[in-house]
Amino acid sequence: MRSLQSRLGLSLSISITALFVLLGFLLSQVLRNTAEGVMETRLTHDAEALLGAIEFNAEGSVRFAYDHIGPIYHRPFSGHYYVVRIGGREFRSRSLWDEGLALPAALPVEGLRVEAVGPQNQRLLVIAHDYQKQNQRISIAVAEDLTALDADIRTFQRRYAAIAAGVLFVLLIAQMLLIRHGLKPLKRLRREIAELERGERQTLDERAPAEVAPLVSELNRLLHTLQQRLQRSRNSLGNLAHALKAPLTLIHQQAERPALDSHPDVRKELLARTGIIRDLIERELKRARVAGAAAPGHNLDLETETADLIVSLKAIYRNKNLAFRLDLPEGAVCPMDREDLMELLGNLLDNACKWARTTVALTVQPGDAWMFRVEDDGRGAPTEQLTRLTQRGTRLDEQTEGHGLGLSIVQDIVASYGGDIRFSRSSTLKGFCAEVMLPLGAQRVR
To answer: What HEC string does 60-82 produce?
Structure first.
C-alpha cells in the first residue's frame, strides 16, 4: 500500500473500530457489574429479612415465619430462592419446589458470592452468609436468576452495535474527507511537479506544509543549480571554442602561404588536421547544447519555431527551390528545451534538404510519446547502412559525407530524453526517413 491516504484511512479506521469495540465491551461490563452490585445488595437485604423471620422459643426450638417473606419466594421456579440452615435443619423457599442449592458445608465469615446452576438450568447469582443469633449458627443463602439481566445486556449490546455502526460510518466518511483535505497540499505539489516536467512552470510553490516545505525548498535549489550548471557548461564550451578558432584560423592561413607550395604533402596534412579539429569542436559544441529531459520549465511554440527554421533552410538551399510539407498539431506546445528541439529538427531537416530533390516532409504527432518524422524524396540510404544505423550503440562515421555528424547529434539528443530513433525508406516520398519517438508527456494546446 503506497498511498498515504490509504494508509492513514486504513490505520484510522482500524483504530476507531477497535475503540468502539473496546468501548462496547467496557460498557457491557460496567452495566453488568452495576446491575449485579444492585442485585447483590438486594439479596443481602433479603438475607437479613430471612434472619429476622427466624424465631426461637423458650425451649430453644426454631420457628420460621414464612409469612414475613416476599411472595416471589413462594412462586415455583420464580428465579428467587433461599436456603436457611440452622443446626441440622434446613428451610427452603417454596419457589425451589423439590430442587436445592449446591452450597459448601461451611461458609466463610466474610460470606460467599458465586454463580451456580439452579432449577431448570437457570444461571443464579448466590449470596451466602453465616450469622449468629441467640448463640445459634445460622447459614443463609439467597439466589436470583441472572437470565433477565443477560437478556437486558444483550439487548443493550445490539442497540449499541447498531448505533455504533451508524456513528462509525459517519466518522469514517468524515475522516476520509478530512484526510483528503489534509493531503491537498501534497496533491498540489504533485500537480506542480507535473507542470514543471511539462515546462509550464520554472519552480515549485514554497507555500507548502511545514513537513514538506524543506523538500520543496531543496527541489527548487536543485533546479536552480541545474540551470546554472547547464548555462555555465554551454558558456564555457562556447568560450573555449571561440578561443580555439583564432589559432586554427591562423594555422589554416599559414598552410595556404606560398612558402608551402613546394611542400604539398605538408599543406594537405595541415589542412586535414585543422579540419578534423574544427569538426570536433563543432560536434562537441552541439552536444553541449543538449539539455536533455533533466532541464524542466521549458515550453516552446512548435509552429513558430518550425516556421523560423524552415525560413533559414530555404535560404541555405535556395538553389534547390525545395517544397516543405508540414503536418503539425495546431496550437500544440512542446515541453522540450529549445536548443534541443532546434538541434533535433535542424539536423534532420538539414540532412533531408541536402539529399532531397524537390520535397521535404515534416510530421509531428504529440502524445505521451511525441513522434517527429522527417522524409525526403532523395535517393535514400542503402539497406545495409539503415540496418547499421539502427543498431544500438553504433557510432556513425562523422567524416563520411551524408548521414554523418548531424545524425550523430540527433542520436545524442534522443538518448538524453530516453527516446528512440528509427531510420528507413520513406513510404510516401521514397527517399530517406528518420522517425524519432520522445517520451515528453501528453499534448497540451495553448
So the answer is: CCEEECHHHCCHHHCCCCCCEEE
Rounded CA separation 303/331 (Å): 8
C-alpha distances out from residue 264 to 249, 269, 271, Å = 19, 9, 10
Residue with cell 436468576: 145
Is there a contact between 380 and 432 (Cβ–Cβ < 8 Å)? yes
Give tens-digit pLDDT for 342-401. Answer: 888 988 999 899 989 999 999 999 888 899 999 999 988 777 777 666 454 444 444 434
180 grid coordinates = 483528503
- pTM (whole model) above 0.90: no
DSSP bridge partners of 117: 123
Residues 6+ apart with CB under 8 A from 304: none
Choice among 244-258, 326-340, 423-437 with the minimum mean pLDDT: 244-258
Q: φ and ψ at 444, to 5 degrees?
A: -130, 140
CB 312, CB 342: distance < 8 Å: no
Between CA 373 and CA 420 the distance in angstroms is 12
Contact (Cβ atoms closer than 8 angstroms) between residue 358 and residue 380: no
DSSP, collapsed to helix, strand or coil, labels residue 446 as: coil
Please state, in angstroms and rounded to a whole number, the distance separating the CA atoms of residues 77 and 124. Answer: 12
* C-alpha to C-alpha distance for 338 and 306, rounded to whole angstroms: 11
